[in-house]
UniProtKB/TrEMBL annotation:
Molecular functions per Gene Ontology: helicase activity
Portion held of the full protein: 163 to 1053 of 1154
Region called Disordered, residue ranges: 1-68, 375-422
Start-end of Acidic residues biased regions: 382-415
Source domain of life: Eukaryota
Keywords for this protein: ATP-binding, Helicase, Hydrolase, Nucleotide-binding
Biased composition (Basic and acidic residues): 27-40
Organism: Huso huso (Beluga)
Protein name: ATP-dependent RNA helicase DHX37
Length: 891
């Protein structure tokens, strides 16, 4: 109970103070009475070569943090019984020379930033230093977060081995898996896991130290964690419960942390670990970069293997499927018996269980007249809810799995490798985040004698993991990144060029143990065009999505949050408004003092619907549609609609002026054809009011039925690229929906049957629920005073009249109420992607937009014996514009 009180107190405190001042920070000294205390922690004699010992902590820190305010330390020494072999290997690590400096800085500061070259020993050694210094004594534990699951697992295993301790003591926790026990002292975890823990225990009472590793990756979750901990740590110290935060990063841009007074009012000391790096010769490709970089990588590896001296090869590709495909090809070309038959990992059927889907489909009955706002998809509670995380890896693999084409497969046997000398076996190992831990561990063991190690990796090998014995790096220069469409807000993964900083990191992997070579599969001119650093993910994200994610983590006052790189406040406020209107956040009180209202407005907590929405990787508007889509077996349609709306324009541009008579005829013919096809695709569903959304469904279904060929698209005025993109997105979203809503059991059925009439009604309601802020009402003929409003619509957002676009199948129908996907301005303001909705749905499905009047006399109050509530009809009007809506029965 006490703990809970403390938590809520901590929470309110943290959310109202935007920066902590000196006074708040002074923690009383605390003596660990249960621990054997000695004045100076003894240092093991073999550590810390003398010449490095004296490096001073930066002056500004000592000056700005008076001695009596420095949190106390558990000054004990916990011996660790390492093997001689391990001890010897450790002594070679540059970080060992800095142990004393680092530990002193940590003892005297709440926050410390530690940066050093990859491989200098940060991840494996710092937890051990802390353990020996007693930071895991008593009930406390040491926590280390990694943005990648693969790093969390392998690093815990490595530290476990180095310390000669059981994995009950040095453990890891990733999303669905872990070996943490009550005896755990050092806990490696993904950043998502720690964020979830903060949700449950804001002060993280278990931990005496938190290490945020790989901070340079700037993953959104790492950024948010650093922001949160910059508040949690002072709070803990103020309460006399000492806690430390150590931010670790490769030697990439660290000013975002060190020069950030909002984050750390007192500049934390930053300690740099020098490390020995052997020279790496960089070779660029002369040729213009190829799209087939896996093929190019294959040729380069073959060449290196056959012509260059011994030394491991490390290849950087972008995703799991690519990695597996290249591994297969290499194993076939350079067979190595015990391993050549190893099954390609991670190639499960992503399509799902057809039977299950059919059964699920049959089961649904269509008796409900209306979709139910309270009936949305939720995350399965039984399985891994506690450890839900959204680390980079997961999404990369989950969403990316079905879009990776197996490039190498068909060419198999045609490569140079066939002619290779079979007496030179290549020991080929894959490395990517979702690889089983036993298989990941293989890359750290020496290859079988007489073979050459070749690791085919995603960018997990860039900074997170150091593979011993690598002399050659083959760099595709590509990375799979998450992209967000600013307009639709939908995210997708795309392969792009990496940054210069990343390419240099990759090259550096070749020079860990001896001079090495890096082969870049692109020209130096292309390298020159790379961006210098990869931008922080947070600045590339639409913030409505981000705000929803943070609210899901119970970070209600997003605007005060100390982001390392903050999004603009306007963007944050607009996001909050949109989320409120979607019902993802709880309404602030409508009455009270203006100031308080304003404050309440910017710190609204999340609703259960909001939590359901937060689970989908799309913009909140579409996430709401997906969350509600499980009703009436509408999900396959909603997934298709969301995909099509994301791609935006599915039809070719046919209104362009023709350059020749021939083209003019062609365009005219095509336009007529498209009009005809649209009518066919709209069919019954279109006639029932689903309008352009039905055209989207019909077009996608027909195109898939024809095998999604360029010819079909060309003949019917569809954009082939758009249709391919829609297919890809449908696959991604189906995977996401199946992950969230286990009972969905969906598979991508490209050729959907048209929805039944009742489903059409539900789809229109779902569209209304998701696109509620895009509602428009027809200006009735008798209301028209100014001719410019003839046949026009009024929207709450725009002052000017808007019109249904002539390309819409509802252009001539002019329904009274419509929702639209977007407004485009040409000669007039035109709504595109229009669907008709019924006014009586509005107060029920968009109550947050409505004002409700007094109870009506007739038909009178009704008592519901089931709920014990009295329900009665009330009049409602739509906000801002005051449209009269039909009376609705409410409590
Ligand atoms: O975190 P940082 O990049 O600074 O280095 P680290 O990950 O702590 O790695 C330090 C050293 O441990 C490297 O030289 C790795 O090769 C070695 N190591 C290993 O041999 N086996 C592992 N499973 C992990 C690391
Ligand atoms: Mg590391």
């Amino acid at each position: 109970e006490e703990e809970e009180e403390r938590n809520s107190e901590a929470k309110s405190e943290s959310s109202t103070t935007s920066s902590s001042s000196d006074e708040e920070e002074g923690p009383p000294d605390r003596v660990d009475t249960d621990q054997e205390r000695c004045d100076k922690p003894p240092l093991q004699s073999e550590r810390a070569p003398p010449e490095k010992k004296a490096a001073p902590i930066p002056d500004r820190t000592a000056a700005s943090l008076p001695a009596e305010k420095i949190p106390s330390e558990p000054a004990v020494f916990i011996p660790v019984d390492r093997t001689a072999e391990i001890q010897e290997a450790r002594l070679k690590l540059p970080i060992l020379a800095e142990e004393q400096v680092i530990m002193e800085a940590i003892r005297e500061n709440m926050f410390v930033i530690l940066c050093g070259e990859t491989g200098s020993g940060k991840t494996t050694q710092l937890p051990q230093f802390l353990y020996e210094a007693g930071y895991a004594s008593g009930d406390s534990i040491i926590g280390i977060t990694e943005p990648r699951r693969v790093a969390a697992v392998t690093m815990s295993q490595r530290v476990c081995k180095e310390m000669n301790l059981s994995d009950r003591i040095v453990s890891y926790q990733i999303r669905y898996e872990g070996n943490v026990t009550k005896d755990t002292k050092i806990k490696f975890m993904t950043d998502g896991v720690l964020l979830k823990e903060i949700q449950k225990d804001f002060l993280l009472m278990k931990y005496k130290v938190i290490i945020i590793d790989e901070a340079h990756e700037r993953s959104v979750y790492t950024d948010i964690l650093i922001g949160l901990l910059s508040r949690i740590v002072p709070l803990r110290n103020k309460k006399g419960l000492p806690m430390k935060l150590i931010v670790m990063s490769a030697t990439l841009r660290i000013e975002d942390f060190t020069q950030n007074t909002r984050l750390f009012p007192i500049t934390p000391p930053d300690i740099k670990v020098d490390s020995r790096q052997f020279p790496v010769t960089v070779h660029f490709n002369k040729r213009t970069p190829l799209d087939d970089y896996t093929g190019e990588a294959y040729r380069k590896i073959s060449k290196i293997h056959r012509m260059l001296p011994a030394g491991g090869i490390l290849v950087f590709l972008t995703g799991q499927a690519e990695v597996n495909s290249l591994c297969r090809r290499l194993r076939k070309a350079f067979p190595f018996r015990p391993h050549c038959k190893a099954p390609a990992e991670g190639e499960e059927d992503t399509v799902g269980d057809v039977k299950k889907f059919k059964k699920a489909k049959q089961k649904k009955t269509l008796t409900m007249p209306r979709i139910d706002l309270d009936n949305y998809s939720t995350l399965p509670v039984d399985e891994g809810d506690e450890d839900r995380e959204a680390g980079i890896d997961d999404e990369e693999e989950q969403l990316g799995s079905d879009l990776d084409l197996d490039l190498g497969e068909e060419e198999e046997g045609a490569g140079e490798g066939d002619k290779s000398d079979p007496s030179l076996p290549l020991y080929v190992l894959p490395l990517y985040s979702l690889l089983a831990p036993e298989k990941q561990a293989k890359v750290f063991r020496p290859p079988p004698p007489g073979t050459r190690l070749c690791v085919v990796a995603t960018n997990v090998a860039e900074t997170s993991l150091t593979i011993p014995g690598i002399k050659y790096v083959v760099d595709s220069g590509r990375v799979k990144r998450r992209f967000y469409d600013r307009v639709t807000g939908v995210s997708s993964f795309r392969v792009t060029w990496t940054s210069q900083a990343s390419a240099d990191q990759r090259a550096g992997r070749a020079g860990r143990t001896e001079p090495g070579h890096c082969y870049r599969l692109y020209s130096s001119a292309v390298f020159g065009d790379f961006e210098k650093f990869s931008p922080a993910e947070i600045t590339r994200r639409p913030v409505d999505d981000l705000v929803l994610q943070m609210k899901d983590l119970n970070i209600d006052k997003v605007i005060n949050f100390p982001f390392p790189t903050p999004p603009s406040s306007e963007a944050l406020m607009a996001a909050e408004e949109l989320l409120l209107s979607l019902g993802a956040l709880e309404e602030p009180p409508k009455h009270g003092r203006l100031k308080e209202l304003e404050r309440a407005k910017l710190s609204c907590p999340i609703t259960p619907l909001g939590r359901a929405m937060a689970a989908f990787p799309v913009a909140p508007r579409y996430a709401k549609m997906l969350a509600l889509g499980k009703q009436q077996a509408c999900l396959p349609y909603v997934i298709t609609l969301v995909s099509a709306m994301t791609v935006r324009e599915i039809f070719q541009e046919l209104d362009r002026p023709a350059v020749s008579d021939e083209e003019k005829d062609k365009l005219t013919g095509k336009r007529a054809r498209v009009v005809q096809m649209k009518r066919i695709w709209a069919g019954q569903g279109g006639a029932l009011g689903l309008g352009d959304l039905m055209v989207m469904l019909g077009a996608v279904g027909a195109c898939e039925y024809a095998g999604c060929t360029p010819k079909f698209c060309e003949d019917n005025g569809l954009r082939y690229k758009a249709m391919v993109e829609i297919r890809r997105l449908r696959g991604q979203l189906t995977t996401a929906v199946n992950a969230v809503c286990s009972e969905a059991g969906l598979f991508v059925d490209p050729k959907m049957k048209p929805p039944m009439d009742s489903q059409v009604t539900f789809l229109r309601q779902i569209a209304l629920a998701g696109l509620g802020d895009h509602l428009a009402r027809r200006v009735q003929p008798e209301e028209v005073l100014d001719p410019k409003w003839r046949n026009a619509y009024k929207t709450p957002l725009l002052d000017d009249p808007v019109f249904i676009h002539p390309s819409s199948v509802l252009f001539k129908k002019l329904p009274d109420f419509v929702v639209y996907q977007e407004v485009v301005e040409t000669t007039k303001m035109y709504m595109k992607g229009v669907s008709a909705v019924e006014p009586e749905w509005v107060p029920v499905l968009l109550p947050q937009y409505c004002h409700f009047g007094k109870p009506l006399e007739t038909p009178g109050p009704r008592y519901c014996s089931e709920t014990g509530r009295v329900r009665c009809h009330r009049e409602s009007t739509f906000y801002r514009v005051g449209w009269q809506l039909p009376a609705v029965e409410l409590d």
